[in-house]
Amino acid sequence: MTELSGGLSEAVRLLLGGDPEVWQIILLSLRVSLTATVVALALGVPAGAALALANFPGRSLAVAAVYAGMGLPPIVAGLVVSLFLWRNGPFGTLGLLYTPTAMIVAQAVIATPVVAGLTLAAVGALDPRYRLQLLALGASRAQTVWWLLRQARLPLIAAVVAGFGAVISEVGAAMMVGGNIKGETRVLTTATVLEVGRGHFATAFALSIVLLVVTYFVTMTLTLLQRRHAAL
Amino acid sequence: MDIPRWSRHTILVAFALILTGLAAAPTVVRGQDATPAAQGKATLLATTTSTADTGLLDALAPLFLQETGYILKPIAVGSGAALELGQKGEADVLLVHSPAAEQEYMAKGYGTERRLVMYNDFIIVGPESDPAKVTAATSATDAMTRIANAQATFVSRGDDSGTNALEKKLWNAAGITPQGSWYVESGSGMADTLNIASERNAYTISDRGTYLSLRDRLALKILREGDPSLLNIYHVILVNPKNGRDIDVAAGRAFMDFLLEPKTQQVIGSFGVEEFGQALFTPCAGNSCGVEAAATPVATPVA
To answer: Does A59 sit within 8 Å of B1, measured CB to CB?
Structure first.
């Protein structure tokens, strides 16, 4: 049990003591996961909205694929991205493997179906009469989609939180395409795995607490945003 | 495109039946005999990643079960973590390759018995172009000096594993404190570290087994091998039952005896020949293979 108490006090020390290495790891974790979430939003929101509103043959298959993708194991995303980025892979000449960029790509692959699936559910849950009303008022197609998304903005923030939560906490893809290189691609989850591998269980536990605290603050910021929007 | 309601039900029922079948299956297969395995007895082995990554443990586990009736449950971590787990009593027996740390472990009374099992060797690998001229080195230590002097990229495990411990010993012997942008710490296992070194045209130190099992897709060549200081020696250690609760001494003893018996030693000695054209480990339980003697000159003096 000494690991638990030792880990707690070390977590406090890591957070408040300003250990440059730990802060560098925290900032990289945030940079990678937030960028991946933004990319996932840019791709997932239009895709989810399109699936919710459009009617085309094979739509239910596409919807099922998005929902299945929400459970995509990170290691599978990591493997596929690795296969593309390996020196002998199709994009090998870019030299992106074992860089933060590769981690962003892999995490965006993981988060996009999460964002798309929740957008789909949020837009699909809107009263269909609202859409008819917009059309009756003479709104263009783009305007209709825009207003529907505005209407669904609260569940959309949940989509952002879920997408971010999926990537900040994953370790399989980050390890595989990032390589856990000190000072370059080491993030909170992979650093935790390393400390466990070293047998430094207290430090590993401390890093886990740091990860929880960081995730909590980002989620809280997003929730506050949601509150402010709800008040409007 | 919607699936009709009746067929949705059929699919659901079929799915539920399959799941039930899967859940029930293992109990059907399990026998009634009185072997330790039937009683749920298992040997908890903390070991290094190399024994698992090469597939050796997968080859030994069924033989161990057949012979002793114990299920082998390996926890593959770095040697440092394996010793740590033993010290905490989270394993029954250890199979590790970090001699200096092992001696300290035994000296502190965390183990009751330590026996030599097998060895292979470490190799210094790097890009074929060999910018640091490692092939011209006169010793493994000289090779490290050349890499540092050339500021050629070197990927270190950086994880307190047995391989990492050997690497640090070599830097120490060369009188170098490696740091700077050329010195990259992967914080990953051997396989990942080799991949990173390959991607970056960098040097690294690997155990021969893991390198051979990945050789085909690595842009890395063996540049230095065969030095006594590059020997990689594996010991089996019985965890002291005083380290914690529920340590199964009999299970640990069973695995130690199993590893040391001639039949198993033969299996170890031929492991890998079929797949890689050469054995990955040399067994040496009985005779010490002259390894201990050869290793002595470079061993860290006990203070």
So the answer is: yes
